[in-house]
Design brief:
The protein contains four helices and three strands. It is an alpha+beta fold. The N terminus is likely disordered.
Length: about 130
């Protein structure tokens, strides 16, 4: 019984890795929505029965650009799922649930922009 549990976990990891690679490729090459900017599939978490998958998506850009890109990906979910079904050899294609992944690296980028802006404001201030 214990071996089956490990096999299931190993199988889940294999499927997650496969889906992450395939989803990235499908969105980059087959979804032709100009609203989709620079993105990364940061993770895929699949249920034990392999029927549902949560897909973490990180998007670069301003908050508005990130939201627009993420919404474009979510709106293409049915198409992406259809393409995934044709691409993978899984008996059942999992139901996809996209989740915006706000990675710490992106927050650091925003903080750096804020610091640069403050520095620019300091440089432009006239001395009293």
């Amino acid at each position: 019984m214990e071996g089956r549990m490990e096999t299931g976990t190993r199988r889940q990891k294999q499927v997650e890795n496969l889906l992450q690679k395939d989803l990235d490729e499908i969105i980059r090459k087959e979804v032709s929505d100009p609203k989709i900017g620079f993105f990364t599939i940061t993770y895929v978490r699949i249920s034990r029965d392999l029927r549902n998958a949560t897909v973490g998506v990180s998007v670069m850009g301003s908050p508005e650009e990130r939201e627009e890109s993420f919404e474009a990906i979510r709106n293409a979910c049915g198409y992406i799922q259809h393409k995934l079904a044709k691409k993978t050899a899984l008996r059942h294609t999992p139901e996809l649930y996209f989740k915006l992944d706000e990675m710490p690296e992106l927050k650091v980028e925003e903080i750096l922009k804020e610091i640069r802006s403050e520095e620019d404001n300091e440089k432009h201030k006239e001395p009293n």
